[in-house]
Amino acid sequence: MTISMKGNYSSDLTSLPQLDIDLPPMPEKPGGARQTHVFTTKTPAFYRPVDLKKQGPITPRIRHFETLLTEIWRDMGERPVPYAFRTRDGKIRSMDAGCLARLLKQSPPSIKLVLDDAQGVILAAEPIPRGTGDALLGFRLTDTPDPDLKALSKRTIRLGARPFRADAFRHWGDACVLTGTRIRRALDAAHIFRYGGEATNATHNCLLLRADVHRLFDAHLISFNYSGEDLQFHVSPDLHGTEYEGIARIRIPAPRLPRPRPHPEAVAFHFATFTRQEHAR
After folding, report:
1. Looking at beta carbons, which pairs linking 56-59 to residues 24 or more positions away fall under 8 Å?
2. Cβ distance 222 to 244 under 8 Å?
3. For residue 269, which of 163, 210, 193 has the smallest C-alpha distance?
4. 41-59 pLDDT tens trace
5. Helix/strand/coil (H/E/C) assignment for every residue in 103-134
6. Are 84 and 47 a contacting pair, CB within 8 Å?
7. pLDDT tens digits, residue range 249-272?
């Protein structure tokens, strides 16, 4: 079977690679309307880079595409993600060309493409770090927790715990990022990406949170993402009508973020988990 592509291109659907992944549904728009998915289920239409014309701002939908692309890329061992593929259940998915166009036309671009040698059509894409001055993350988000470290963690005996706590206090000005609490015994040094040994005790992987907020953050009932260069917080609907609901209105402007700021890769991973969890409810 062949599929039509922009111009005179064609491709055999039976040759599409199958990825061992499931894609979460899209977040709802304000008012409850469902967005079209950034990895569409329509018959794939293949493009050359010159065919991608879309202009405009980087929207939350495009950032969501970038987050999912990065997560799939990491699950694949940091190899290019096929433009069209089958998911674990056999469904055909392909990348939203508009999202690709906007990320490609950023200055600098935040994705790079793999092209077919013969016709120049897009075969795959992979994310590249934005020029924000962020250091390398220093650990892999796909690492499985070491069982010995996990046992230590459950006993609250963590390697480098005291320096990590002291660093979190210095970095965030001795106050909870979200509540402003300054009572030291009520504050925790929180990992954005779960504790996995001393490498995860990096300054760009820490927040200073009041203990109850920390528990909700670890449970992915509270999360955050980058909106432009600002840090925007979100809460689960399960917290609506509680004292935590107002956290969803907190946005930390880029100039107020400490340096190094929370690492975009760790932030994106936490937010993707939050999003998946919400859609699984």
Report:
1. 56/102, 58/102, 58/103, 58/106, 58/228
2. yes
3. 193
4. 988 988 999 888 767 777 8
5. HHCCCCCCEEEEECCCCCCEEEEEECCCCCCC
6. no
7. 999 999 999 999 999 999 999 999
